[in-house]
Amino acid sequence: MSQAVDYIRESSELAQTLEAKTKTDWLADFRKQRLNAFAHSSFPTRKTEHFKYNNLSALTRQSFARLAEADSGDIKLPELAEQLDADRLVLVNGEYDSSLSKLEEQAITFYRDANADQKDFILEQLNKKNDKKNIFSLLNDSLTQDGILIEFNQAQTKPLHIIYVATESAQQKTTFANCLIRVAANCQATVVEHFATNKDATDNSLFNQSTQCVLNDNAHLNHYRLHLEEEHTIHFGELDFWLDAHSQLNSFHVGLGSQIKRLDINVYHQASGSHADLNGVYLSNAQQQIDYHTNVEHRVPHCTTQEIFRGIVGGSSKAVFNGRIHILQDAQKTLAELSNKNLLLSNKAEINTKPELEIYADDVQCAHGATVAKMDETSLFYLQSRGIPKSQAELMLSFGFINELIDGLKHQAVGDYLRPILANLFEQAA
Amino acid sequence: MLSINNLVAEVEGKTILKGLNLEVKPGEVHAIMGPNGAGKSTLGNVLAGRENYEKTDGTVTLDGKDIFELEPEERAAEGMFLAFQYPVEIPGVSNLEFLKASIDAISKYRGVEAPDSVSFMKKAREACKAVNLDQNFLKRGVNEGFSGGEKKRNEIMQMMLLEPKLCILDETDSGLDIDALQVVAKGVNELRSPDRAFVVVTHYQRLLDYIVPDYVHVLADGKIVKSGGKELALELEKKGYSWLEQEVA
Amino acid sequence: MSDEVINERIGKDYKAGFVTEVDSETLPPGLNEDVVRAISAKKGEPEWMLEWRLKAFEAWKTMEEPDWAHVNFPKVDYQEISYFSSPKSMEDKPKSLDEVDPQLLETYEKLGIPLHEQEILAGVAVDAVFDSVSVATTFREKLEEAGVIFCPISEAVHKHPELVKKYLGTVVPVRDNFFAALNCAVFSDGSFVYIPKGVRCPMELSTYFRINEAKTGQFERTLIVAEEGSHVSYLEGCTAPMRDENQLHAAVVELVALDNAEIKYSTVQNWYPGDENGKGGIYNFVTKRGVCHNNAKISWTQVETGSAVTWKYPSCILKGDNSIGEFYSVALTNNMQQADTGTKMIHLGKNTKSTIIAKGISAGKSQSSYRGLVRMSPMAEGARNFTQCDSLLIGDKCGAHTFPYIESKNPSAVIEHEATTSKVSDDQMFLCQQRGIDPEKAVSMIVNGFCKEVFKELPMEFAVEAGKLLEVSLEGSVG
Ligand SMILES: Nc1ncnc2c1ncn2[C@@H]1O[C@H](COP(=O)(O)OP(=O)(O)O)[C@@H](O)[C@H]1O
Ligand SMILES: [Mg+2]
User: For B213-229, b where at least 16 C-beta lie within 10 A, e where not — what string?
Assistant: First the structure.
């Protein structure tokens, strides 16, 4: 417990020392306000509803409150970088790496170089974040020295592949990163956020990352977030989507378990006619943890949400899914559905799921469903009756269970990249 | 080939098959008819080794091997094929992937080399064509979103690919229109050969116009209560099953 | 149905809202060790009982009121409440119904619960609890013949101390939660039921609770023990007069179903809900839990229409192999009412099964939440749960919420949870109206249809009553 207090104190001190040398003094008020909230938070315990199922002991065991420097070592990018015909933005230990990046079509702006309009936009957007429940997001905010603003202002032909790599020098360190994406009115964009670890690290590294996405009127964003880091990684991520009128979001997630991996996803329908597809798969094994907290807020009428998450939980791992759909009083004619299915593969594994509905408007159609089950025996028998041995049949069914979602992906290259990775994972598990 | 001796079997504690005897020789086609709930599907499931379908007495051998010693997939590899009355949907697992896995496993069991991808694809496409299924069905999830008729044709397609020696068809005709029925019958007839046998479970005589059986058996209350030639099917069609039950009683 | 029509006439009609003028003896407000001692003394309790209470009181002092429920109300001042009230005429306990104060009997008649045995619906034995004490238990002889014990718990403490000692606090421990600890310290009365081995209780058992006195809390305690292979069906009903201040009701119910036993527990809760502005009404903070041994079954059915604030989660601990837990619930809130209710199904044994059917109806400006926990422990091989939560919203000022916690540590366990939200649709209303049914009747029909799965679990007479109760509670929610 005292370590937990230390964690908050040390982090707060760090934030103050960094404050002195930052180039983005126009963010100082925001940082101060968030730091204040952070310093007054208590470290989550099992009684903290928002972190009820997380085991954060790995955090308090080690000191993480230091930033990692950029690493110019020998960095191997994930294969998808080759397979995907895309612009590439590479961040090594949270720092932009110009030699590995390849930005032909899409421009980026660092917060420190933002012009007046951009500053206004960044500030407005950051100040919209009002979630005080998550101390890791508060910490990230209070350390926002810089960030990357990505504006899609015209028809984009190539996806943007953002690769976050952590190297050995991130071990025992905390890395912070921020990204703000804006898809302008009537524009369309594809963004792949890809988290990877460069080498077989032997020690924990902590990554605290925040992405904000704003979809202006009629904008369309295809978004992928692939968490494929190795298992020493500790990740606290925050991902917010702000949806303007008639915008459309397709967001797809893959999460492999690690020491601690926690992603908080918020979708805010803030003008009528917007639609969100939020899908994902999570897989955990060994002693890993994975936790997706999704929160979809319908603030206005006539918006729709379809959310599907599936999980496969094996070994002695622990998976958490908390899916909240929140319909505010004005949000009449909302259509929102959430489905969460889980396969539990082992006697030592654990799944905790909580699909929540909070509804304050009557003329809405909302439903959620959650299941935790073993493999379907009828399907298993069908496969066996065609000569496929039981263990292989189980693998096929497990993979099929998530492949259904992968098959639905708009960008085949992403699916083709993911399939062998995931299939391989099952074979190892078997 | 298949020899069923005094088979008694139960499902969830309830005895369904109550001493069933049946001899099937290579090259023969046996039709099994009977009222709903008689135990026809149960027989298929017991033979194929479905969980919870327990043999409590009797013996069943396939080419002399005790089938109850074998796992379901081993029975399949030994050449037993069951076309299901209600084929299950397996979203996310493509038909193609499924069939390839099946052929590979069976080939491995038999110690023969599995066809390479190219020749496998070719065969799969041909089989599709033979049952009038669009090629696209190969890419879709197993039976996922298929209509009733498509599912049944998919079963026959699999049968053609796997080339089993004993084919058990459980009401493959039900829910099919006349064209689909002919497609199914054609598929079966093409496979008929001196070393392959068929057990065709059906509720209606109709199918037997196309797949002409050597023997017709009536299954009622867990037993074969009457056996005869193909003319028995016509008689059943006319008189229904109740006269038989009286005759037996 | 347009919102204006719905909002036009938000009224209320609480039929059980009268006050009975009886002379009563009430402890002054406040809670301290002396009060606990005084309650115990009034009941002439043995030393062990007093000690148990004092221990609970010590625990309670260290505990905090839970704040996680989706409800909002001013803090209760526990020193403002009187913890014991008894009609004066009960000082010398009546030996038979003839000695019971006629005013009291009249009260129960007004509530539609005649206590005179000859008038009683055949086959229902009634224990009536008025404020803090049990006033009458009917049909005792007939029950005694079968070996069934059905009496006020205060009496059981004296007559069957070994049974009470053995089971009291075993299902809901003293420190279980803030309200349960409070109840342990100050409970005044309630019912005790004991069904011997292999006995099928010859009739339905029923308790009616009524809070009458102002500024009193009611803290009843119910304990039902069903021995191996026995069977009992138990009903409880609750009402209170209309008063402007909020009154506290913090009950504890413990059920023990031993091997192969079955307990069916049905509740129709109609405590005073407060007026349309949220003034007054009962705070209903109740802990109900049962434990099932091998092959045993506990079935909770509840129809909750009353109370200003409800905090209630009748639960099952499925400890024995093959045991079964069921929860069927209708929770209707209107006006300013708030309900946070649901269940916990804790699967410990092999092949345990649970079913949860929860129907929430929100009207007026009310908030209704389902909160549930389904937990599969690592030992719960082959366990199954099915949960269906449906919410119906009537009007656009209310809220309906679902908070299901699903936890599994066993790969062979299967959990299925589904939840939907809907409203009474214009099409449904139009069809009814086109066939000549007035809107109010139409809504009540549709709502009754919505609740059918739960009502069918209630004993016959109760099902009818529950249907009527819904109709009354919904009055004014449509034009
Ligand atoms: N999985 C099962 N669980 C319980 N009973 C079953 C099951 N399968 C079949 N039965 C029962 O077995 C009997 C025979 O069913 P079935 O073999 O399907 O008949 P048929 O195919 O001849 O219509 C029926 O009474 C049926 O209800
Ligand atoms: Mg059948």
Answer: bebbbbbbbbbbbbeee
Beta bridge partners of B59: B5
With an 8 Å CB cutoff and a minimum of 3 pairs, decide whether chains A and B touch.
Answer: yes
Q: What angle do CA B209, B212, B215 make, to 5 degrees?
A: 125
Residue boundaries of the structural domains of chain A: 2-271, 377-430
Structure tokens at A146: 């810089």
For residue C86 the two structure tokens come to 């008894």
C residues 405-464 closer than 8 Å to A (CB): 405-423
Tokens representing residue B57 in the block:
């007495």
Token pair for C392: 């119906």
Q: B132: how many CB neighbours lie within 10 A of its CB?
A: 17
| CA A66 to ligand 2 center in whole angstroms | 68
Kindly give the number of the ligand 1 atom that is closest to the alpha carbon of B42.
Answer: 17
A333 interface with C at CB cutoff 8 Å: no
User: ipTM of this model?
Assistant: 0.90
In chain A, which residue's Cα lies nearest the Cα of C412?
A374
Q: Are residues B75 and A385, on separate chains, in Cβ contact within 8 Å?
A: yes
Alpha-carbon distance of A192 to A188, in angstroms, equals 14
Q: Are strands B141-142 and A160-166 parallel, antiparallel or unpaired?
A: unpaired
pLDDT band at A241 (very low <50, low <70, confident <90, very high): very high
What b/e string do you get for C55-85 counting C-beta neighbours within 10 Å, with b at 16 or more?
bbbebbeeeeeeeebbbeeeebebeebbbbb
3-class secondary structure per residue, C129-193: EECCEEEEECCHHHHHHCCCEEEEHHHHHHHCHHHHHHHCCCCCCCCCCHHHHHHHHHCCCCEEE
What is the CA angle B32-B38-B39, rounded to 5?
80
Q: Which of B46, B90, B100, B104 to mutate to test the interface with A (most CBs of A within 10 A)?
A: B90
Asked whether at least 3 C-beta pairs link B and C within 8 Å, the reply is no
Rounded Cα–Cα distance for residues A111 and A210 (Å): 14
pLDDT in tens, C364-406: 899 999 999 999 999 999 999 999 999 999 888 999 999 999 9
Where do runs of H (alpha helix) occur along A210-336? none
According to DSSP, the residues that pair with B60 across neighbouring strands are B4
Residue among A132, A250, A259 at smallest CA distance from A201: A259
pLDDT band for position C120 (cuts 50, 70, 90) = very low
Q: What is the DSSP letter of B114?
A: P
Identify the contact set of chain B against chain A, taking CB-CB distances under 8 A. Answer: 48-51, 71-73, 75-77, 81-82, 84, 87-88, 90-93, 97-99, 101-103, 105-106, 109, 141-142, 158, 162
User: What secondary structure does DSSP assign to C303-370, as a single string?
Assistant: EE---SEEEE--EEEE-STT-EEEEEEEEEE-TT-EEEEEEEEEE-STT-EEEEEEEEEEETT-EEEE
Closest of A362, A364, A298, A327 to residue C364, by C-alpha: A362
Cβ contact, residue pair B98, A392, below 8 Å: no
Give the list of residues 6+ apart from residue A12 with CB closer than 8 angstroms, or none: A35, A38, A39, A142
Which of C251, C255, C331 shows the shortest CA–CA distance to C285? Answer: C251
